[in-house]
Amino acid sequence: MSISIRGLSKAFDGHPVLNDVTLEIPEGELVALLGPSGCGKTTLLRIIAGLEMPDAGEVLHGGEDVSARSARERNVGLVFQHYALFRHMTVEENVAFALRVRRRPRAEVSARVAELLRLVQLDGHRTRYPHQLSGGQRQRVALARALATEPRILLLDEPFGALDARVRQELRRWLRRLHDELHVTSVFVTHDQEEAFEVSDRVVLMNAGRIEQVGSPAQVFEEPASPFVMRFLGAVNVFHGRVDGDRAYVNDLEFAAPGAAGRAPAHVYVRPHELDVHRAAAPGSFAARVERLVPLGGAVRVELSAPTYGRGAVEAELDLRKSEALGLAPGDRVWLSPRRVRVFTATPEELDSLTASEL
Amino acid sequence: MSAAPRGRRGVLPGFGLSTGFTVLYLCLVVLVPLSTLALRSSALSWADAWRVVASPRALAAYRLSFGASLAAASANVVFGVLVAWVLARYRFPGRALVDAVVDLPFALPTAVSGIALTAVYARTGWIGRFLEPLGVRAAFTPLGVTIALTFIGLPFVIRTVQPVLQDLDPALEEAAAVLGAGRWETFRRVLLPAIIPAALTGFALAFARALGEYGSVVFISGNMPLRTEIAPLLIMTRLEQFDYAGAAAIAVVLLGASFAMLVAVNRLEAWTRARTGLA
Amino acid sequence: MSRLSRATEALALDGPTEPLLARAKREPARPTPGATTGGARPGSRPRRPDEDPPAVRWALVGFALLFLAAFVVLPASVVLVEALRGGVALWWKALVDADALSAVKLTLLVAAISVPLNALFGLAAAWSITRFRYRGKHVLLSLIDLPFGVSPVISGMITVLLFGAQGWLGPWLVAHGYKVVFAVPGIVVATVFVTFPFVARELIPFMQTQGAEEEEAALVLGASGWQILTRVTLPNVKWSLLYGVILCNARAMGEFGAVSVVSGHIRGVTNTISLHVEILYNEYAFQAAFAVASLLFLVAIATLGAKQALEWRQRAALRAAAQRNVL
Fold first, then answer.
1. CATH architecture designation of domain B50-276
2. Does C94 share its domain with C210?
3. Which of A177, A190, B29, B264 is the most exposed place for a label (fewest CB within 10 A)?
4. What is the model's pTM?
5. pLDDT 10s digits, C53-69
């Protein structure tokens, strides 16, 4: 079932949490709401579920306006961050809950529960209580419970946030596989970029109650629509410069800045893995000094200083092959050339918030 | 077009039913009865009210009630902190039993406490017989009233101070020791400031309770007007004489004092909370 | 935490991956944790920073025990001693006396009416206050705390002012032939006023800490209000509710001041156990008075026992939960 959100706004005690949010989620898609804490993603999820009522705007499930319907009537599946399993009920009773409150015949209930427990691979644990299960097992029970009535929409609120890294990885992959089998329209909330990229079809980036960008993981990473998106998705080097017409200038370097117009201060963003390192000067490069080399498994992070560019600290990322070929050591003088940049004009507040440096 | 503003209080069902019933109950059980009190006492003219409220007998009753409550609450602070300290910090045989015993004044019905205390402190009582040769008379004197009020207020101080002591971070004392403080210094400079807010709260609670106490006191006090008559008993006597307005007037004085105490307690707790992180 | 377990923890922190031999070699250099009971020989090891010298410790313990003995233990024991003075037979005789029995019956009746009513109120108030957002909650909370600041005599007096022949509702009641004050209904009303906060004061902080997540989950899964209450909320709060009911009951059965004002002190009709004790005492029938009082004393002991059992259970549950969360 598709989800439509139109002009949603919500404030708690006078603090605005969502600001005129509009979003379309087609049927069968797995969408991640990604953003820092406090950006409103959980509130948005809860409004879709019916656990909060918006101050303005509407929510449609499958084209039908459900804004006035209580959570009970919406038939969505909801998985909570801390599972919210009924602690005094067994696994079986938890999963059967939704069916029992709808007074379904006993045979139907037990058949469905058995099916679900097999799906989440917990059929040996049906008589256990939540406190006897591990975190990963509890989350799987929560999922089975949410799927009991075959909801057409599945909502997950930071479902793996309370688990440790290895379990999180396994469950992420497992969730993706589950979605590929069941094709239920799913929305899940996370602040973990890697998780959003790994699991979802599309990513919705949110910040301070607004949607910054919607797109596939590749899209939002390669073509960020705003400085926030650029900075949120991975490490980035920021250089102060200015735009003039459709060119951007940082000191004596020049870049293409399509879409810019007029003259204005600007930021030029370069990702560490798109910064080439040379032993000799090359056209379009600037000088820097190697400060530190940090081995990161399959790559090497090179921390450099270039006082006349950026804030003095610059980061480059090289794969092992390139790093060995260069044979860098702390103290070396090298030249850096950006292979690819993104240019955003700077608003006055942004300029102040970063420490100023020579233009 | 815009979503319904209903449900902004929360989406769980039952708001109307639960809140409605709660408010109704509170009105019936609290507000209406209290307002009759105000109304009844206003039936008296100011002059009459003053005569009742400030009669020698009433003044003696206030003096006794306030004085004994103050003394009892103070004793409870001193001994309460002591007992709380001992319970929170030391291990000794029977500690669990002692911990349970502290709650006894709370759980025991006031009439039972009343006759029990009288039996112990009367002239022929278990303790009274030792006090008699020393010239100390407990029963039928203000001292007896104070003893009874100490009994009643005992758990309040202990139960507010004990959790504070138990939750105290041992790292604080270790830091003090490393910085060179001795045990007494550590107690005075580090531990006492943490205990004082809780002790004050306990004092206020014990005091408020003692002011209104009736059952535990009426047996040991002897109820002699102008000497050992507590304020609640005075109210009782007025009622028996069908002087409702007079009784109400005295009740208002007593209530005023109790409420002032409760407000003080609330302020204290808020102040303590604002300063948390000090301990 | 005992010193032994502290030491165990300190040892564990030194790297579980260290080979056993390396750890054994290092041990003698570390100051020994020492004996657990207060029998450390002075000068054999430095005292821990939060330890007091044994002399101080035993003196403080002694004073505390003395204080408690004089103020609590002795009065409590005197009840039993005086009740059984003259043997068990005499004790029993006092209890099965007609007036005593009717006092017991009245007390039980009053408790049977006020406790369920107040439990219902406690549930409603806790549900309203902890599961919804609205202004004025602190007003409700202050009102709930009110009886604790009001002398029981005043509570009783208020009942008389309301329902007495000269009270507000007096003329209406008299006209319809209802007797409230100086009769059983008055006693019930006064008891309800004095005991209504107990269940609410137990449930509210508990439900506040627990949070509404399970109830929200049940709502999304399609449960109605009644289903949420019976299948999710009540099973979760049952121990808090039970404890509140036990406290409420103890107070309802033992209430004296408020009931004293409202009752007509008519032997065998409008006397609760507390009032009957007073009557016996004032007639110098000391043994009988203590015998009847011992009933309430037993209720008090049972209440304290239940409190300890519930706390012990709670602590065990917390410990189990902490262990699970390590997974």
1. Orthogonal Bundle (1.10)
2. yes
3. A177
4. 0.77
5. 788 888 888 888 888 88
